[in-house]
Amino acid sequence: MAQFHFLQGNINHSARAQDLLLQSMAEWSIDVAVVAEPYFVPARDNWLGCADGSVAIIGGTLIDPSRGRGWVSAVSDGIAVVGAYFSPNKSLADFEGFLVELGAVVNRYHPRPVLVLGDLNAKSSAWGSPVTDSRGEVLEEWAVTTGLVVLNRGSEYTCVRQRGGSIVDVSFASPSVAGRVRDWRVAVDVETLSDHRYIRFDVSAQTAKRPPSNNPDQRRPPMALSASNRELLEEAAL
């Protein structure tokens, strides 16, 4: 089955880190990357930057673009990709206002499948952080209200500094695409020339629906699920 390869990172406005990211994209055949704090956004068809230059999307074919301060969005291979960055130096009230705007962006693409990828400088146990801060609580509630699920798995730090690490780079998805995400991981052993690690994952191509069968046996209604089996299936779909 065909898969689309995604990369997410923050390169701290470093020219060398941006060059290395582009090299890594080529080596790994990345289809779409979301880059927080890029060094610069070149005027090319496969680059799309936000209004203040704090986040960019890199991809082969980007259609239906939109942008604002701290966010940028486009559709690639039938999936709406929203890149986001929010500074740790801004207030909680500013963050709440930013999320209202970001939620409107997500809703604009409905019912198309949506990915929201970025460094939002918010910590929550929902995406593996050992602590939950006020921003994390607000972001958790926003994700639930917006109908998104967290893709982050495990507790590997996405940002590593001398004073310690944190998990501030988060991946969200609408349910229609979350079930197609494969192998979400933090690339812990890969050099980025930044204090942020890369995040990588794949999305399987949407399979075409089967035409109705003429076989009577195949047209029978499915057996009712027991409560325990239903719970197992619901967990598998997460």
Q: Overview of this structure, please?
A:
This protein has a single domain, classed as 4-Layer Sandwich (Deoxyribonuclease I, Chain A). It is built from 5 helices and 14 strands. Strands 3-4-2-1-14-13 form a 6-stranded mixed beta sheet, with no helix packed on it. The protein has a 6-stranded mixed beta sheet with strand order 5-6-7-8-12-9. A two-stranded antiparallel sheet has the order 10-11. Helix 2 packs parallel to helix 3. Pfam families: Exo_endo_phos_2. One of its GO terms (molecular function) is catalytic activity. InterPro entries: Endo/exonu/phosph_ase_sf, Endo/exonuclease/phosphatase.
Mean pLDDT over the full residue set:
90
CATH class: Alpha Beta
- Which of globular, elongated, flat, extended, rod-shaped describes the shape? globular
- Which structural category fits the helices and strands? alpha+beta
Strand content: 25-35%
Pfam family, one: Exo_endo_phos_2
GO molecular function, one term: catalytic activity
What's this, in brief?
The chain is α+β, with helices and mostly antiparallel strands.
List keywords for this structure.
single chain; 238 residues; alpha+beta; Deoxyribonuclease I, Chain A; 6-stranded mixed sheet; 25% helix; disordered C terminus; Endo/exonuclease/phosphatase; Endo/exonu/phosph_ase_sf; catalytic activity
Q: What is the topology?
A:
Layout: E1 3-10, H1 15-28, E2 32-36, E3 47-49, E4 55-59, E5 63-68, E6 71-76, E7 79-85, H2 92-108, E8 114-119, H3 134-146, E9 149-150, E10 159-161, E11 164-166, E12 169-173, H4 175-178, E13 181-186, E14 199-204, H5 227-237
Parallel strand pairs: 1-2, 7-8
Antiparallel strand pairs: 1-14, 2-4, 3-4, 5-6, 6-7, 8-12, 9-12, 10-11, 13-14
Helix pairs in contact: 2-3
